[in-house]
Protein: Glycerol-3-phosphate acyltransferase
Organism: Thermus thermamylovorans
Amino acid sequence: MVGSGQRGSAPVETSTLRIGQGGPSCKNGAVGYLVLAYLLGSLVAGLLLFPEVRGRDLPGGSGVFRRKGPLASALVVLFDLGKGALAASLTPLEWRPLAGAAVVAGHNWPLFFRFRGGGGIAPSLGFFLVWFPGETLAAAGVGLWVAGLYHALYWRLRRRGIYPIPFGAAFGYLAFLLLVPEGGRLGAALVAALVALRGVQILRGRW
Ligand SMILES: O=P(O)(O)OC[C@H](O)CO
């Protein structure tokens, strides 16, 4: 997207995000946005609302579904989507790539829960739904479709290995990286890397 410059003056180019433009006060402001995003991410719904899940299962939608049922799971997913969406809404465009990483880092390694949180899927979905709604919905569709297929062809029969949602999500993030416009690629790559890193930790039993 290209911003409309004022008539008679040089057009204002907004198509490329340039992180760190501006003086020291701008950078100080950015630290505030990133800390806020990290703290928002650290409010892990599954751990706040259902502390009994802690240590027994993952605190995201799937883990809470397994332990507490569908309504509790829906509540957790909505809360975690919401904090991601709020972080995107509060952060100016130029700092959004880092704010996306910050809110997901908070959810995955929360300050309030000894740095042991969820997988980062719901907050990243909420964050990018605000920033790139069409691309995010399309990528989420890919992820859900792959998860459904994996469930039907493998998980339903074996119940072993990677759970369907994270399995499908890996394809969703790949789709998103291909679909997202240039201005969002850095943010998408940072977030996907943090989700993948946490996924490796979880697979190794370090959750
Ligand atoms: O990645 P989270 O913590 O948002 O959890 C989402 C789902 O439970 C993953 O299976």
